[in-house]
Amino acid sequence: MSYAGFKTLFPKSDLIGFAVLAFILVVVLPLGVDIFRLNLIGKYLTYAFVAVGLVLCWGSGGILSLGQGVFFGVGGYAMAMFLKLEASSPENTAIQSTPGIPDFMDWNQITELPWFWQPFHSLTFTVLAIIIVPSIFAYIIGVAMFKRRVGGVYFAIITQAVAAIMTILVIGQQGYTGGVNGITDLRTLHGWDIRTDEAKYVFYFLCVFLLFVCLAVAQFVRKSKLGRLLVAMREMEDRVRFSGYDVSNFKIFVFCLGSAFAAIGGAMFTLQVGFMSPTLVGIVPSIEMVIFCAVGGRLSILGAVYGALVVNWAKTTLSESFPELWLFAMGALFIAVVMAFPNGLAGLYSKYCEPFIKKKYNSIRANRKGDVVAKGATHEQQ
Amino acid sequence: MFADYSTSELMSIFAMQGFAGLILFSVFVLMALGLAIIFGQMGVINMAHGEFMILGAYVTYLTSNVFSEYMPSMFGSYFFIAMILAFIAAGALGMFVEWALIRHLYKRPLDTLLATWGLSLILQQIYRSVFGAREVGVTLPDWLMGSFQLSEIVEVPINGIFVMTLAIGISLAVAALMYKSRWGIQVRSVVQNRPMAGAVGINTSKVDRLTFGLGCGIAGVAGSAFTMIGSTGPTSGQLYIVDTFLVVVFGGAASLLGTIASAFTISQAQSTMEFFLSGSMAKVLTLLFVVVILMLRPQGLFSLKVRR
Question: Do A312 and A370 fall into the same domain?
Fold first, then answer.
């Protein structure tokens, strides 16, 4: 990419924002906290993937999906199934009545691995599936809804129903999905133990790396013509349509992209936390994911990352010490974010901090210039 | 799946499940009516609707306790008082919520969704702190116990019939209110054209508040009826919210008749399938069916033809 292209993609202020976030995630946090906490932060970051996708869908495009948990779950379950299949080799599962299949299938009197889990013996397939399956799924939903010009509230309700269907299905089909407990007891990835501290560090950095890849893609989408069109559609859909654009295709694309991000987050969740369960798929987690995005700022991709970190950190701290307070706090957060600061942390930052920083920055620059001028003047005098 | 049963058995099964479906239908109708008023008429998504219903259920629970404690002789009639109290409690809370929250958000429907979800979390935690996490049930008065024996297999519980009658009665009352009363005309005119309604002298914000209050009040009555057939816990409301929204959307948001028709379809489909499949699969298939239909026909079963 040319230098000029890079500059339009990452204007100076955005570049600084990215650098600060990278510094925090790559240097400060790994040095500052122990591996247990770092693993927790890695878990929070997996939600940041979803939140970034939601910034694109909801903030830019105005499509609020309440079913992002579904895609998070699809990614997570795909990864979990790969690890589970490796963990349930015939030697490891010799005590089962059918060795070689995952333990929960054996408990449910299933004697053979069903066909749709067969390909998950392969890591390549799994990785591809993590991105492709949710995208196809999102594509189907997107085509059905956006081509018929269903949007806004109706879209939100239908995606929520999809989340409900997914949870009921996963819980109901215990033999194929592990039911309420989910897929647990994951051990190795190609023979490499994923439960050691070393593995946790590796996964943390992998997670950060992937997050930045997603952030870069999101930044590209936002700065490109597509991003402008999305904003235009959010503000006045009919005018964009009358200008000759096929509005639905853009919406479908951004919805698919958001779902792929969510699925990557889900897969990283499984790797770092070591299990996947329906409690991460349903209606409640899906709406919580929206709140991460809303708290961070629905218009800012970096804000979404901070939002995911802050809300989850607050959730862990509060529910550790005051479990009863947490729901109150969460509810108040939902209301406050909507009523008082609809642009979230990023909005607060750009309203209060940025002018202050700009002022400081400008005054420093002015001082320096003044110094140079003064110096020049003294030179001339001599 | 039908092969194992004889024809007469099948008929009885369909009758029984059909009746179970009718009870579910009544609950759906009661819940969806309130939501159809709020969502269909005002365009507000009230995610806390289930919690308003549970408020009604808890009010009923308290009333029944008070009656059995202090007025055991009147216990048979506590339900009617409870229903009125539930309506007032939920309606008052609804009007307060409209005043404090919703009226600031009419232009941002997706934000009302988030705000009311927050409200639902707070209400849930309040219920949990006040009434405890365990589910509570009420004692039914004697005249609601028992069942009619229609044939050897078919049996109809009386509380089911009572709930059904209630659902029909409230539907009729709401229909009369919306289509026959002056207030209904005002509501519908505000929905169709807010500035114009204001221009002809309708106090639109007052109409909004009363409409929201009425919707929530009906949810409270629904909760009251809900205690007749099930126990109440802090999170019971959340279980029904998705179904209820689907019922309203499926029926065509602004149409009361559509809401009732879709509640009937969904409840019958679910309870009939429940007998032959597992409960969870029946639910999945029903929801899937509704979602697919909505994808094919997004405006729902009955849609008003209004020029916007």
Answer: no
Alpha helices in chain B (DSSP H): 7-35, 42, 49-70, 78-100, 109-131, 158-179, 182-192, 194-199, 204-229, 236-251, 256-276, 279-296
For residue A245 the two structure tokens come to: 């654009």
CA A288 remoteness from chain centre: 12
Size of interface A-B (CB pairs under 8 A): 115
Reported as a single tens digit per residue, the pLDDT across A217-259 is 999 998 888 888 888 888 888 888 898 888 889 999 999 999 9
Q: Are residues A131 and A267 in the same domain?
A: yes
CA dihedral A277, A278, A283, A284 (to 10 degrees): -40
Q: How many residues does chain A have?
A: 382
Specify whether the CB–CB gap between B147 and B69 falls below 8 A: no
Res A374: pLDDT? 56
Q: Do B216 and B31 touch, CB atoms closer than 8 A?
A: no
- Whether A224 and A352 map to the same domain: the answer is no
The question of ipTM being above 0.85 is answered as no
Q: What is the pLDDT of residues A63-93, one digit of tens each?
A: 888 889 999 999 999 999 999 888 888 877 7
Q: How many domains does chain A have?
A: 2
d(CA A285, CA A51): 12
CB contact under 8 A, A157 and B105: no
Q: Are B43 and B109 in contact (CB under 8 A)?
A: yes
Q: Answer yes or no: do A170 and A207 share one domain.
A: yes
Residue B104, beta-bridge partner list: none
> Is A324 an interface residue toward B (CB < 8 Å)?
yes
Domain extent for A371: 347-382
- Asked if A104 and A176 sit in the same domain, the reply is yes
A333 and B CB contact within 8 Å: yes
In angstroms, the separation between the Cα of residue A209 and the nearest Cα of chain B is 31
In chain B, where the domains are located: 25-296
Q: What six digits make up the tokens of A178? A: 């592990």
